[in-house]
Amino acid sequence: MLSRLSLTVALAATVLFPAIVPAGAAAASPVFTIDGNVGLQSFVSLTDAHVRATLDALVIFSESPAVRSGSWTAIQAAFPSAMRGNVPDATYLYARPNGSYWVAGKGLQPVSIADRAYFKEAISGKNAVGDVVLSRSVGNVVAVVAVPVRDANGKIVGIVGAGIDLAKLTAILTQEMGIGSSAVFWAVDANGITALHSDPANIFNNALKVPELKNALQHMIATDSGTQTYAFKGKTRTVLYRHSPLTGWTYGFGIVH
Q: Domain 52-166 is of which CATH architecture?
């Protein structure tokens, strides 16, 4: 079980904590002390909910007549309604078994994704969730969710996928959690690549290559959950952290001393 950590944070929007606003209090960024486990749980739950919604929509979509037809025209036309309500401005794709692929709004791409880990996993018959990559089609940093497409006989004939823009997801989570600048949050994949960060400038950085972070982060990635104190950019940070089975990421939520 995670140890308890009290965080004093400015609740900018009180989205998650409306009940703690005292009567008559000023509306602009009141300061409250909240339990760190609440912040971490909210961060993990909200992030995973967005990713899970995308995965579930893709699984259903992959079984639709439009996708099974193998016609890009039909697939592209069906994407908007199938993926409505997920993270805005995600990039949607359909790929054939050889790695050639189409992107919604952009058509057939001149390169292959056959070398991408998420493609290899999905084309092998598994759902791929959480690969953090620089998109070859749109140039932004995304978390990829991809699922196999099977024909009526169960043969895998391609994949459909979504690239969730991680800068936009960070902005959404910041608003949904309703916290100000006094709290820090981040998520890294198993290789130390930063997927989410309260300072978006750190997204896609390899945190394991930062000497002052390496030892602490290796420990956090290797353990399921806990509390960790470390230094970064001349300041001490204490975070609660937890691993997510859905994305494979390690999530951290805490304070700067």
A: 2-Layer Sandwich (3.30)
pLDDT in tens, 154-166: 999 999 999 999 9
Distance CA 98, CA 77 (A): 23
Q: Residue 47: which residues within 8 A CB-CB, separation 6 or more?
A: 169, 173, 187, 196, 244, 247, 251
Specify the CATH class of 6-49+168-256 in words: alpha beta
d(CA 208, CA 214): 5
Q: Judging by DSSP bridges, how do beta strands 141-150 and 156-165 pair with one another? A: antiparallel
Taking each continuous run of H as one helix and of E as one strand, the counts in the chain are: 6, 13
DSSP string for 152-218: TTS-EEEEEEEEEEHHHHHHHHHHHHT--TTEEEEEE-TT-BEEEESSGGGTT-BGGGSHHHHHHHH
Contact (CB, 8 A) for 129 and 135: no
In DSSP terms, which residues pair with 240 in a beta bridge? 227, 253
In degrees, rounded to 5, the angle at the alpha carbon of residue 243 between the alpha carbons of residues 241 and 245 is 160
Angle at 235 between CA 211 and CA 10, to 5 degrees: 130
Its pTM stands at 0.86
